[in-house]
Amino acid sequence: MPILGFPQGFVWGTATAAYQIEGAVKEDGRGESIWDRFSHTPGNVLNGDTGDIACDHYHRYPEDIRLMQDLGLPAYRLSISWPRVFPEGKGNVNEHGLDFYQRLVEGLLGAGITPFVTLYHWDLPQALQDEGGWANRDTASYFAEYADLVGRRLGDRVGYWITHNEPAIAAFVGHYFGEHAPGRRDLGMAVQVSHNLLVSHGEAVEALRALERGLQIGITLNLSPAQPASDAHVEAAQRQDGFANRWFLDPLFRGSYPEDMLALYGDLAPAVQAGDLETISAPIDFLGVNYYFRTVVEDDPEGAFPQTRTIRPEGAEYTGMRWEVYPQGLYEVLMRLHQEYRVPRMFITENGAAFPDAIDADGQIRDDRRLAYLEAHLTQAQRAIQDGAPLSGYFVWSLMDNFEWARGYSQRFGIVYVDYEDQQRIVKSSGHWYGDVVRQNGSMILT
Ligand code: IFM
Question: Is residue 353 part of a domain?
């Protein structure tokens, strides 16, 4: 399938997140995060893995910047560790933590790489968790203070800001399914957390706008088309869509929660204060889209909320995460955002796949399946652009293999391989290929 050209100025990059790559969890005054606590609690993460060392990026960032430069990758999405900046989540600022991000940003700019900064990629300071975490509405105000500080310190050099990464995962996987930090299993709490996260997004947007630096500000959502396993399951698919997609899109772009979901949550619907929805729906400059798979569901009255069961269609290809490879879903998501939500500008802030990689005898990593996955998704992205979707960029998840949350180091998403024994980086075939795609702005014919 050919990948045709992308628009001039299309932003090409890769993405990572602080806890997944940095390591150095006790260094230079960094405070504890909920992921330190969660990963060190036995039973939470596969093989007892933690982010203590991860890719040691905290020390090796110059090498990682060089890697991006050598591959010719013009943009990089990173996240800031809140507890490096505010070890207790608020109050005392840790200048050493800020210094690290200053050095990182300087290094990127020096290498001609445009940084996109995410403020919250799931590593809440544990001290704030001890006060209730995201279930405590005050956390939203502390988040805005953190956004203000980081915006002041980096806003002269960083133009693109993402408040939250995948609030649906932080809220529901962290507080309902219990598989992510802080490991709670309480639906009502999760729903309230989702609202508080959205309020904190709105407050952070306000704080960043108040700096009057002309920053481009957005939020990143993980979106997955919900499809019924058969005609008998259309309502189940609507519930799934409401739960995973509309619950976040509607307040952000329409200023209201979806009625059907409010009815389903009933008493568990969030406490919404006057003005919250105006705060949440304040205009943003772009939406970040993380796309990995579609969700095919059946009705399941006994199942977890929203009483659906996920089906794995037969004959499909699956990644190491057991996620279906369904490139067309990316097109569907982008077109829906364009047509139904009139999203003004979008970046694909994550897309990629985990496959078990092997190092061949000649030292090469021929990750053909990942390469094919990326190619197929880029083709769909390009199709959406041709059909009018305002898509401005694409970031592969991930620059390098890293700590995949509850799956620890068992899942490799990188286009660069990381040997966790000696921290050696090896560019995979997909990495070399992606460098070529970027150089040619996607105009290469790949067969
Ligand atoms: O590794 C994660 C990332 O932190 C958020 N989006 C999905 C990725 C793969 O699971």
Answer: yes
Q: What integer pLDDT is reported at residue 446 of this predicted model?
A: 46
Where in the sequence is the domain holding 404, given as residue range(s)? 11-441
CA of 323 to the centre of ligand 1 (A): 12
| Pocket flag, ligand 1, residue 397 (CB < 6 Å) | yes
Instruction: Say which CATH number the domain at 293 has.
Output: 3.20.20.80
DSSP-based helix, strand, coil % in the chain, nearest 5? 45, 15, 40
Which of 396, 398, 409, 411 to mutate to test ligand 1, by most ligand atoms within 8 A of the CB atom? 398
Ligand 1 and 308: CB distance under 6 A: no
Q: How many structural domains are present in the chain?
A: 1
331-368 pLDDT tens trace: 999 999 999 999 999 999 999 999 999 999 999 999 99
Decide if 2 is inside a domain. no
Give the DSSP letter string of 58-87: HHHHHHHHHHHHHHT--EEEEE--HHHH-T
Identify the active-site residue in 166, 298, 324, 332.
Answer: 166
Question: Is 100 part of a structural domain of the chain?
Answer: yes
Does residue 303 lie in a domain region?
Answer: yes
Instruction: Decide if 106 is catalytic.
Output: no
The pLDDT value given to residue 443: 85
Query: DSSP secondary-structure letter at 30?
Result: P
Low-confidence ranges of the chain (pLDDT < 70): 1-4, 445-447
Residue carrying structure tokens 């009483």: 307
